[in-house]
């Protein structure tokens, strides 16, 4: 299995993501700078978290319009798996690879804490390592994670089993509609989520609940 | 040619920042404020003098970058 991590100026969770992919996948991912000519032939493209372009205009808006995202869109259309975490999720949404919008947290505060997530659907490559309905721990760190979609989009996401993760046990940190923490594309090969599973993969992190996501993904991408 | 693009949240989209501003206005003693919706303003300076062409170009800019049309509306004003 081969993975690539895309890096835009202002991202700062790329090293954590590279470490998680290396630790769990057993091989270092390719690291692709946004101005590189191309993305290598990989099974998984990951856009990590941070503050691409300083969150100017709207979170993820500038990175989403970079030519590199056209390549990501093409690869996704050909079935390559794409994972966006935090700012990576915001970029995927702004790029139109996932529906809806991520707005300012209702508290107006940057929220950095641990939340509980319900694994809402497991019939996809990302969450197959969990059991449906399982509650896991996961850290979040964001200012604009308040998921919003119009009623029609929301009904489609719910009806098609495209909500991958929901904030559980009253831990919704941002006011997301339907407690949505992560969603899948129609073909379920693109996942975006606000929480950081890459930050809960070894005992030194205080838990390993994020590990199953990468373990299933890296096995399936082989 | 100059243009001003105003981007505002669509009706029905929750605006926590607008609500916070409304609360702050009330605490400053400004009564009677029934609602606040905040947004963004972009002032652009454009080449040329063809207003129709400029409007087409500005609409493209709004659709592709300046506004997120999932949650935002935009309004274009052109002045010479």
Description:
Chain A is an alpha/beta fold. Chain A has one domain: Rossmann fold. Helix content of chain A is 24%, strand content 25%. Chain A is built from six helices and eleven strands. Chain A is globular and about 45 Å long. Chain B is built from two helices and three strands. The interface between A and B is medium-sized, with 19 and 11 residues. Chain B: Its EC number is 6.3.5.3.
Question: Helices, strands, pairings?
Answer:
The complex is a heterodimer of chains A (222) and B (80).
Chain A: E1 3-7, H1 14-25, E2 30-33, E3 44-47, H2 61-64, H3 67-77, E4 81-85, H4 87-94, E5 101-103, E6 111-119, E7 135-142, E8 146-148, H5 151-159, E9 163-168, E10 180-184, E11 190-193, H6 211-220
Parallel strand pairs in A: 1-2, 1-3, 3-4, 4-11
Antiparallel strand pairs in A: 5-8, 6-7, 6-9, 9-10, 10-11
Chain B: E1 2-9, H1 16-27, E2 39-45, H2 51-66, E3 72-79
Antiparallel strand pairs in B: 1-2, 1-3
Which features would summarize this protein structure in a list?
heterodimer; A: 222 residues; alpha/beta; Rossmann fold; two-stranded antiparallel sheet; 24% helix; 25% strand; B: 80 residues; alpha+beta; Mth169, Chain: A; 3-stranded antiparallel β-sheet; 2 helices; 35% helix
């Amino acid at each position: 299995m081969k993975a690539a991590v895309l890096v835009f100026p202002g991202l700062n969770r790329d090293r954590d993501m590279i470490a998680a992919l290396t630790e769990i996948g057993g091989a270092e991912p390719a690291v692709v700078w946004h101005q590189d000519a191309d993305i290598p032939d990989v099974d998984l493209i990951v856009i990590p978290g941070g503050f691409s372009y300083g969150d100017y205009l709207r979170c993820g808006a500038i990175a989403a319009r970079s030519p590199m995202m056209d390549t990501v869109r093409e690869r996704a259309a050909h079935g390559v798996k794409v994972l966006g975490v935090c700012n990576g999720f915001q970029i995927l949404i702004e790029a139109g690879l996932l529906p809806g919008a991520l707005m300012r947290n209702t508290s107006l505060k940057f929220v950095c804490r641990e939340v509980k997530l319900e694994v809402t659907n497991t019939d996809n490559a990302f969450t197959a390592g969990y059991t449906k309905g399982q509650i896991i721990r996961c850290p979040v760190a964001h200012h604009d994670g308040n998921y919003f979609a119009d009623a029609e989009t929301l009904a489609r996401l719910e009806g098609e089993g495209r909500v991958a993760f929901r904030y559980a046990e009253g831990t919704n940190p941002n006011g997301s509609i339907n407690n949505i923490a992560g969603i899948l594309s129609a073909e379920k090969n693109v996942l975006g989520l606000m929480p950081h599973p890459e930050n809960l993969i070894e005992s030194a992190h205080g838990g390993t609940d994020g590990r199953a996501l990468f373990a299933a993904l890296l096995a399936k991408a082989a | 040619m100059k243009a001003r693009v105003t981007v505002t949240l669509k009706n029905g989209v929750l605006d926590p920042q607008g609500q916070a501003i409304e609360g702050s206005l009330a605490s400053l003693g400004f009564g009677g404020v029934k609602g606040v919706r905040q947004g963004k303003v972009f002032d652009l300076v454009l080449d040329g003098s063809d207003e129709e062409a400029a409007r087409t170009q500005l609409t493209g800019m709004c659709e592709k970058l300046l506004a997120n049309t999932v949650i935002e509306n935009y309004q274009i004003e052109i002045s010479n």
